[in-house]
Amino acid sequence: MGGYPNGPEECAPPECEPRVTSLRDPGPIAVFVFWGVVGAYVVLYFLTKLLRTRRQHAPSTRLELVAPNSNESAPKAKHNKKGLHEKNNFQDTRMAVNFEGRYLHVTGYKDSIAGLIGYCLCCLFSLSCTALFILVLWDYYSDCQVSGIDGLCFYGDYFIFGTFDFNSKIMFVVWWVTAVWFFAWVINYGQVRNWFREVCPLGDASAVYVWAPADIKILTANASPLVWLVRQAKALAWPLAFQGRGQTLHTKKTHAGLQYFVFEGVRFIVGDGKPYRASLIVGSCCMDFHQACKGLDAAEAGKRLDLLGSNAIPYKATSWMRLFVDECFRLFHVYQYIMYTLSMWNSYLFVASLDVFVVLLAGLISIVSARRSQKAIEQVTKLETTAEVVRGSKWQVVPSAQLVPGDVIRVQSNWLLPCDCVLIQGERTPQPVL
Length: 434
Known about the structure:
434 residues
């Protein structure tokens, strides 16, 4: 065996000259200046955003827009002479739309150069924290002795900061700043980018944040006192208003210029600054369907296709990068990384590196498994067939993705039915039972 390590000696003049010996050296000053610039810019950006929004009297609207197939009528917004909603105060322009019995809160955002600069500065701040930790670790283990299983690398010569005391002070600051920063980022993971966007009416939005409140189900009404106590504690620590899931979606436009976004496979059209679920009622009784047996012309079919989208499931597998980011930005994983970085610095380089490797390997397996499952689902949703439809009083063969509500199709034998349909005409041949 190699024996327990007994060196190296700390970097000290005249044999070795440390690169940084004081916080007043150019390197630390440059880091502090950069951090100060990031903090000052972010604070100035949010103050400017706050004042500008108050000066413009951003409307706060909370309209309960019901689905078109509901028996209720959508309430109308009241407007003043300036065209703004009647209630004006500094809040998000939020709207609530009924979606399968629950209301989705929709907030519109648009990008700005100032917001993009602020978001990039925050990303650079994250990279600077990571780079500083690597620098501290490099200084801590530089020229360390590794002679065998009982002679692992415990400390180095501190060629950057000179002494263990100075290295530990830098590590203390970097570790705490990094821990607080990344925990805050992960907790607000879905909203950080929107903080650096401008809140705006939905008609002007390039992105929307859709919040779906959680569907709370009480399985046991007459619960024991212990269960009741746990429920009350959960409601106090995590109010119902904060329970749910949110997603930021980019808005798109159809060929006719209609603005829309897709949430959980459902298309929502933005009209007059308000979201509506894209739908079309072609009939409510058998007589309506029989009267529509002549089919649609090409122009009407095109309008309906533009409004409702293609007759396909809008599912696309998540990219590798997005899966990697989503896997890394989990609260438990960030906690693990923060703890393992502290263990790495505290003379447990090999053990902590092995722990990090195990976590990364488990995350990689999870990412690959999720990607394979998503690709399998994507292949199923891509299945497409053809259909004979009446277009302009003529039978035509079109891809199933171009079918729209109101189309008259010819049912074929051994055919993969590409949509829901109603049988309006046909013949039946009785099969005798012998």
